[in-house]
């Protein structure tokens, strides 16, 4: 017993010393990054003014404290611009602002960038895929049609990917693993979100939730005339999916969210709280360190994208033999965006969306009977487990599934077949519930007196039956 206590006594100070050294190293590393970001701000400013000036307005950055919003089309993006863009802490920010004032660099706030008509930035890639940014055309959508369209009712499913990803996330995992019945019953839509994959990447855009949702609306709902659909989303795509579902509340049949970055709304602090939880200043693990650097340091992140994304074709060619065929698309997706699109999507969707998600959940809970399923791995280092637990508390009807020994990606990767089977079970259960509701409505309608007496519950059943008129054999008449 004496030896054990001595060993414990020795280990404890060593552990404390290690933690102290890590803390000191963290302060030093992020202090250097603060300085580097400030210096890069000074460097990029004059270059941008020379190379990107249009109509007398040069794009600015978010290093200034001011927040002056200049709207280009009368929208409400002002409410969706995240405070995390302006209020990120940087030890040298005060010195930087003073330096700018001394140089009399009188530039408009970054939001006035919407007045610019520029096609692309000098630091972005110039290939055909990355240049789809001038006119904000429709999003790139991959559609998988049912193999046989006979008497079976066809249902629609819309997939939303996460940050630094694309429609390939779904076309390479779920699409090939549908069951025989699923291949006949479901029409699948995988979207490249605005600024990612093969979709447009406009740089005179703030990538707010409204802009993301409107583009999905114009690219999927309107062209394909979808009246009802299921939703499946991963990571950042969950926030966009909830906003999209709340806007089309009467059309949603089910919502499945994988690793949603949800944080309860804390009014003005919600955006900063989300940033501090998702991008903590930590050196370990490397994944969190990278997330902190790319989310907190605008100019350092832009430099990384300048080196990697601008040269993605060369890097894809170099790493293709090493990456293997199965998940090579992940490497491609990591580089097929611009810094502007990823930076603003991170802050205005994930961080800024923290102020709005509670409202979306309340809308869906009050106005829609569609089931909500949340899936997350218990080893997720990107999105804390508390996010899914908090969503369950906010929306108690949520079905929460925790996958053991799964992280942010292999909650699906390596589990493609079982994951797809579970999705199909969710979709089928909704169809079965609708048939059950129809039969219940038919019983109520036979007894008109009873139907009127219990108007509270009967009305809800009646409303559920209105959108789709199912025959008793389970097929839709629509």
Q: What's this model, at a glance?
A:
The protein has 478 residues and is an alpha/beta fold.
Kindly describe this structure.
This protein has 478 residues and is of the alpha/beta class. It has 17 helices and seven strands. The protein folds into three domains: 2-115, no CATH class; 141-425, Alpha/Beta hydrolase fold, catalytic domain (Rossmann fold, 3-Layer(aba) Sandwich), CATH 3.40.50; 426-478, no CATH class. The chain has helices at 2-52, 93-102, 168-171, 180-185, 209-224, 236-247, 270-278, 286-296, 298-308, 312-323, 328-335, 339-351, 357-367, 385-394, 416-446, 448-453, 455-465; strands spanning 141-144, 155-160, 186-191, 229-234, 252-258, 372-377, 399-403. Strand 6 (372-377), helix 14 (385-394) and strand 7 (399-403) form a beta-alpha-beta unit. Helix 5 crosses helix 6, helix 6 crosses helix 13 (357-367) and helix 15 packs across helix 17 (455-465). This is AB hydrolase-1 domain-containing protein. Keywords: Membrane, Transmembrane, Transmembrane helix. InterPro entries: AB_hydrolase_1 (IPR000073), AB_hydrolase_fold (IPR029058). Residues 157-414 form the AB hydrolase-1 domain.
Question: What is the element layout, followed by pairings?
Answer:
Layout: H1 2-52, H2 93-102, E1 141-144, E2 155-160, H3 168-171, H4 180-185, E3 186-191, H5 209-224, E4 229-234, H6 236-247, E5 252-258, H7 270-278, H8 286-296, H9 298-308, H10 312-323, H11 328-335, H12 339-351, H13 357-367, E6 372-377, H14 385-394, E7 399-403, H15 416-446, H16 448-453, H17 455-465
Parallel strand pairs: 2-3, 2-4, 4-5, 5-6, 6-7
Antiparallel strand pairs: 1-3
Helix pairs in contact: 5-6, 6-13, 8-9, 10-11, 15-17
């Amino acid at each position: 017993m004496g030896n054990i206590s001595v060993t414990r006594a020795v280990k404890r100070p060593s552990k404390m010393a290690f933690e102290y050294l890590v803390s000191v190293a963290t302060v030093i590393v992020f202090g250097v990054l603060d300085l580097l970001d400030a210096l890069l701000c000074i460097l990029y400013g004059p270059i941008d003014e020379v190379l990107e000036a249009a109509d007398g307005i040069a794009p600015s950055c978010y290093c200034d404290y001011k927040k002056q919003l200049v709207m280009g089309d009368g929208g409400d993006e002002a409410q969706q611009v995240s405070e995390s863009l302006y209020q990120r802490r940087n030890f040298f920010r005060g010195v930087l602002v003073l330096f700018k004032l001394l140089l009399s660099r009188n530039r408009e706030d970054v939001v006035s960038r919407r007045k610019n008509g520029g096609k692309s930035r000098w630091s972005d890639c110039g290939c055909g895929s990355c240049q789809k940014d001038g006119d904000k055309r429709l999003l790139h959508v991959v559609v998988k049609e049912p193999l046989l369209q006979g008497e079976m009712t066809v249902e629609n499913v819309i997939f939303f990917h996460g940050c630094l990803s694309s429609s390939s996330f779904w076309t390479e995992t779920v699409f090939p693993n549908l069951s025989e019945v699923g291949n006949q019953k479901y029409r699948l839509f995988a979207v490249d979100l605005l600024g990612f994959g093969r979709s447009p990447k406009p740089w005179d855009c703030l990538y707010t939730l409204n802009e993301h949702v409107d583009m999905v609306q114009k690219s999927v709902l309107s062209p394909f005339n979808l009246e009802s659909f299921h939703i499946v989303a991963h990571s950042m795509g969950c926030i966009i999916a909830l906003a999209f579902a709340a806007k089309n509340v009467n059309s949603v049949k089910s919502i499945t969210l994988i690793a949603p970055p949800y944080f309860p709304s804390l009014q003005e602090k919600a955006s900063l709280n989300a940033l501090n939880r998702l991008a903590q200043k930590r050196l370990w693990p490397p994944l969190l360190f990278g997330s902190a650097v790319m989310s907190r340091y605008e100019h350092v992140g832009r430099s990384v994208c300048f080196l990697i994304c601008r040269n993605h074709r060369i890097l894809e060619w170099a790493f293709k033999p090493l990456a293997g065929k199965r998940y090579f698309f992940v490497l491609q997706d990591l580089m097929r965006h611009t810094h502007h699109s990823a930076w603003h999507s991170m802050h205005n969707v994930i961080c800024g969306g923290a102020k709005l998600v509670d409202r979306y959940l309340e809308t869906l809970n009050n106005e829609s009977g569609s089931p909500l399923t949340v899936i997350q791995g218990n080893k997720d280092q990107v999105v804390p487990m508390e996010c899914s637990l908090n969503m369950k508390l906010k929306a108690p009807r949520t079905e929460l599934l925790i996958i053991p020994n799964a992280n942010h990606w292999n909650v699906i990767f390596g589990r493609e077949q079982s994951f797809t089977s579970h999705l199909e079970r969710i979709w089928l259960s909704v169809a079965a519930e609708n048939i059950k509701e129809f039969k219940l409505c038919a019983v109520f309608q036979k007894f008109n007196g009873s139907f009127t007496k219990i108007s509270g519950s009967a009305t809800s059943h009646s409303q559920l039956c209105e959108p789709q008129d199912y025959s008793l054999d389970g097929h839709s008449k629509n």
